[in-house]
Amino acid sequence: MPLQLDMTGRVVLVTGGTRGVGAGIAAVFLRAGARVEICGRTAPRDAPAADGTAARFSRVDVRDPDEVARWVADTAARHGRIDVAVNNAGGAPFADFATASPRFHRKVTDLNFLAPVFVCREVFPVMDGQDDGGTVVNITSIGARRPSPGTAVYGAAKAALESLTASLAVEWAPRVRVNAVSCGLVATPGATDHYGDAEQTARVAATIPRGVFARPADIGAACLMLASPLAAHITGAVLNVDGGGEWPAFLHHTPNAEALRAHTHER
């Protein structure tokens, strides 16, 4: 990144920070000089690192409020503070809503909504007790505000997380800021599981106005900005990091569709 914000001395928590988007977020904060704590259910082969400094991993199931409480308390005890919490852990496999089991729907909700609830609940008293407060960034999805067939409960849980973001921003002002980053399609090692091979993925990317998937570092940069003094008066916001969203479906069937798409992508 050409512009680097300084987070030296800041302590940053990233749930699900072992791979994909979470690892990208952790690496961005590490490059900014922060001390980064990540968690997950499985230890990574290589923890996210930058400039010779690696994130510290803890084995935590964020769906378990007791495990979250222990992780946050341990982190605060070791560092003496927590400045930023990024609720990144989430996701859901494709499933037909009508045939998926109640247990499946509950697990998706627990991971994508209740886990951030538990993290927010634990970090708040730590941040609220600091002279300069703290900030929470919730990772949500474009699926929160448009139909999400095949991942309906995931989309609904992310919508609930955006509502929680707005409410906590008011409850916790002015000491703790709470914002969300709404992700579009992101190029991660597991992207082919969702979008298919290289040719299929390229066709999917063509539906994005910018013509490319986001990189995990793009999501990390948005989180870094929201956690920085540049965003001192931003709270309760949802920042879209989606390359312009999605092409309206009707444009694919208009006489000038190809010319318009070509012009947009050439720029």
UniProtKB/TrEMBL annotation:
What the entry lists under Pfam families is as follows: adh_short_C2
Q: Which UniProt keywords apply?
A: Oxidoreductase
Q: Which domain of life is it from?
A: Bacteria
Query: PROSITE patterns in the record, alphabetically?
Result: ADH_SHORT (PS00061)
Q: GO MF annotations for this entry?
A: oxidoreductase activity
**Stretches assigned to the Ketoreductase domain:** 10-189
Family indicated by similarity: Belongs to the short-chain dehydrogenases/reductases (SDR) family.
Q: What is the name of this protein?
A: Short chain dehydrogenase
Query: Lineage of the source organism?
Result: Bacteria, Bacillati, Actinomycetota, Actinomycetes, Kitasatosporales
